[in-house]
Amino acid sequence: MSQRYEDEDVMHGDLRQPEIVDRLLHGIDVLVHMAGTSVEKPLPEIIENNLVALHQVYEGARRQSVRRIIFASSNHAFGMHRVESMLEQNAPYRPDGFYGLSKMWGEGLARLYWDKHGIESVCLRIGSAEKVPVNRRHLSTWLGPEDLIHLIERSIEAPNVGYAEVWGISNNTRAYWNVKAPNVIGYQPQQNAEEWAFAVENIEAHPDPLASQYQGGAFVVNDYSRAEQTSESYR
């Protein structure tokens, strides 16, 4: 049984239904939104849970005057970048599947609702949120528990964020994304996956060698049919 806290309310419902969203958001100032399909699934499921539901959440935020939404985006919106690349915040989207595509769309929706309706959003491009790294890829993408808490706290407490995107990883030596660059919420991760390198650097995220070539790892392998190109112009 999960731990319960004083003044905690628990509610169950379908976020695609406006009446459920209104009940959830009534009297709420900041929403931490981490619901939805979190792995690669067929497009119809992704559309319902990650697009339709997210749209209803933002519409509910308009009706209920929610000030800020913290949106769980994903590194998989960039998964088709090769592992040799170090990405800045303004890196071009390169989703590695329908899940990553939905997060790219979600960031666009968040941008739209700030520009047109004044609802603030912090889009957290979450890497691999695990207790400890369990494979080589995690040495680049890991988000440790302490840093995750710090990330959420800063997303809630930072003033006047407008629309913001933040890489959601720890201070990893082998990071694919430049987490050292300043960000508007003041997130400063302290954990480092390198502490576990001796135990996991020989463990592949997926047996297909394709997974080790792209930042998305195992997500890249799913439904991949393109013949590999050698020219940089195709990358």
**Biggest sheet strand line-up:** 1-2-3-6
- Report mean pLDDT, rounded to a whole number: 93
How widely separated are the two ends?
A: 47 Å
Number of domains: 1
Q: For this structure, what is the CATH homologous superfamily?
A: NAD(P)-binding Rossmann-like Domain
Considering DSSP H and I runs of 4 or more, what fraction of the residues is helical?
A: 25-40%
CATH structural fold name = Rossmann fold
Major sheet size, sense and barrel closure: 4 strands, parallel
Which ranges are low-confidence, i.e. pLDDT below 50, for 5 or more consecutive residues?
A: 230-234
- Beta-strand segment tally: 6
> Quick one: CATH class?
Alpha Beta
Structural class: alpha/beta
User: Which range does the strand content fall in?
Assistant: 5-15%
- Specify the CATH architecture: 3-Layer(aba) Sandwich
SSE pattern, N- to C-terminal: HEHEHEEHEHEHH
Coarse shape: globular
